[in-house]
Design goal:
heterodimer, B: mainly alpha, 13 helices
Chain lengths: 330, 280
């Protein structure tokens, strides 16, 4: 395998949830690639399919009701979709790890925090508990937990949310995964702690060379950490490009709307929210699913399927008329 | 370590302290019964039958002259053993089956729940009588009947708790870290599932002692010379107006044991609930 080969290649991923006779397309034709050492930011509103995407990479979609109906997920050249439980266990924790939104509930209340950090080393690496403890203490040091030797034996309820998120990160990093999935890692934390956690993730990434998928609904978080951005709407990636390109020249009206919703401290301080609500994923029409909320919409948008296509160098957008935005911003 | 023990004790509610102290006293009394009395629970003394309580016989003597105090003390051994086995043997596999059903779901859950429905609907006394008809009366009969039927409550508790725990982030986290399913169930989810069963087991312990005492009273339980409290009450029933002590004092022993265990159960519910609340 050469160094330029992508670490992760997701192609045409479709995931459905079937409840009764309703079918929800939580992910529709999702495709992207990720190279080692890079960060992909996945941004979108609640229910846009961000978390489903993350979980599907680790085979954590409960089935039924969830079904992967099409697509492929290749990690280091091997297919992840369709792996059995044993095959998935070989990937989970050691090759791909994941951290969650709420650190308060992500650790088991009945075991000491340190034990939970060293557990992966004992299970996957077969380390003796003394060696695993030493390694876990070093990890705790790395993620910025003060006096780790002493705090190793403390329980989760004795820790603050920010410290627990650091512990979660240490747990995920224990077996040196090549890909870290961070599902809204800072949403449950204070603004100041958010920055520290993001800085920590970037620092760990630089040190270990792992790739990262960072899911967030916060454009500011994405701007700080990601090399590339995938904007998701109603289960589809509607824009995919480098972070600089997305922030400088968004080519999808939804991205434009998200950027307009970032609180700023200068000049025009009024927020411009995106009007309307995300569509019901059960009742999607044939056309662009953003058409009803779009300021540039026209009759054609409601009938023509909007597929992701190149609109510039390494810049993909699912908008049928991306030139309308350049006209508007000019 | 002693500091940790002291800190834990400081968090115990009064009911837990009182309950465990008196239960410990009962257990110790049972253990040291031979040193606490000069009599034998089976030796008859026909010259001294139906003696009222005195310094010689603090609880009096029964219709064949056996010392009631001695029999009550030895009864601790029998009744606690019965209570322990009839509670914790079914609890062990009830918990296991319920937790597995809750976590795994699917056909295992369906089959177990139907089995459970049958066990719940089955009349206990009918089963006991059937087993007695086959094996004859005795403690073993009760054990077999209880082992067949008494796991259902624990299975149900464990299953419903597991359904809640299964969806929590720490279980998902354990799965994303690639731990084997057995480890996720037993090391991660199980300790969070057993609290309600432990609390319930205290009440169950009392109820089981009462159940066996009741069956012995009816003549379906332990056999005659054994100093089981319920059997002693049954024997003393004939003399209740002339020699109240024969039936009343073993009855008081049951009440005392029951109250201690209820206090422990109450205190544990408080203490374990508190621990969970302080985390949330």
């Amino acid at each position: 395998m050469t160094t330029t080969a992508p670490l992760l290649n997701v192609a045409g991923l479709c995931i459905e949830f079937r409840t009764g006779d309703a079918v929800v397309r939580a992910n529709a034709d999702v495709s992207f690639t990720l190279t080692a050492g890079r960060t992909l930011g996945v941004v979108g509103e609640s229910g846009s399919g961000k978390s489903v995407l993350c979980r599907s990479l680790l085979g954590l979609i409960p089935s039924p009701p969830g079904f992967v109906t099409a697509g492929s997920v290749r990690f280091e050249g091997g297919e992840l979709l369709g792996l059995d439980e044993a095959g998935l266990r070989r990937v989970r924790g050691t090759a791909i790890a994941m951290i969650f939104q709420n650190p308060m509930s992500g650790l088991n209340p009945v075991w000491p925090v340190g034990d939970q950090i060293s557990e992966g080393l004992r299970v996957h690496r077969g380390l003796a508990s003394r060696d695993a403890r030493a390694r876990a203490v070093a990890l705790m040091q790395q993620v910025g937990i003060p006096s780790p030797e002493k705090r190793y034996d403390e329980y989760p309820h004795q820790w603050s949310g920010g410290m627990l998120q650091r512990a979660m990160i240490a747990m995920a990093m224990a077996c040196e995964p090549r890909l870290l999935l961070a599902d809204e890692p800072t949403t449950a934390l204070d603004a100041t702690i958010q920055d520290q956690i993001l800085a920590l993730l970037v620092e760990l990434q630089e040190r270990t060379g792992m790739a990262m998928i960072l899911v967030s609904h916060d454009m500011a978080v994405i701007a700080e950490t990601s090399d590339e951005v995938a904007v998701m709407y109603a289960g589809r990636i509607v824009e995919l490009a480098s972070t600089a390109a997305v922030f400088r020249a968004p080519r999808h009206p939804y991205t434009l709307g998200l950027l307009g919703s970032i609180p700023r401290n200068t000049g025009d301080t009024r927020l411009r929210p995106i009007p309307g609500q995300p569509p019901n994923l059960v009742e999607l029409g044939p056309g662009c699913s953003f058409a009803d909320r779009c300021v540039f919409t026209s009759a054609e948008c409601r009938v023509t399927p909007a597929a992701l296509r190149p609109v510039g160098p390494a810049h993909l957008s699912a908008c049928l008329f991306p030139e309308r935005m350049t006209a508007a911003s000019a | 370590m002693t500091a940790a023990v002291r800190a834990e004790l400081a968090r115990w509610p009064a009911s837990l302290k009182v309950g465990s102290a008196s239960f410990a006293l009962i257990v110790l009394t049972g253990l040291f019964a031979p040193w606490l009395t000069a009599y034998d629970p089976y030796t008859q003394d026909l010259a001294n039958f139906l003696q009222p309580p005195s310094w010689q016989h603090p609880f009096g003597t029964d219709q064949v002259g056996r010392d009631v105090f001695t029999r009550v003390l030895y009864g601790i051994r029998i009744d606690l053993q019965i209570g322990f086995l009839t509670t914790y043997v079914p609890m062990s596999y009830g918990l296991l089956l319920g937790a597995l059903a809750g976590y795994l779901g699917g056909w295992f859950d369906t089959v177990l729940m139907r089995l459970l429905d049958v066990a719940v609907a089955f009349p206990f006394l009918v089963l006991i009588i059937v087993i007695i008809a086959i094996l004859g009366p005795g403690v073993h009969t009760i054990y077999i009947a209880v082992f067949i039927l008494a796991w259902t409550m624990y299975a149900r508790l464990a299953r419903s708790e597991m359904l809640v725990e299964r969806g929590k982030d720490y279980v998902l986290a354990a799965r994303t870290l690639g731990y084997p399913t057995s480890r996720v169930i037993f090391r991660h989810a199980m300790p969070n599932v057993i609290n309600s069963s432990i609390v319930f087991s205290m009440a169950d312990f009392v109820l089981n002692i009462l159940l066996v005492s009741g069956l012995s009273f009816l003549g379906l339980g332990v056999e005659a010379p054994l100093p089981e409290w319920g059997a002693m009450i049954a024997e003393g029933r004939d003399f209740i107006f002339d020699a109240w002590w024969i039936a009343t004092l073993p009855g008081l022993a049951i009440v005392l044991t029951g109250v201690s265990l209820s206090l422990i159960g109450d205190g544990l519910a408080h203490r374990l609930g508190q621990r969970q609340r302080s985390f949330l």
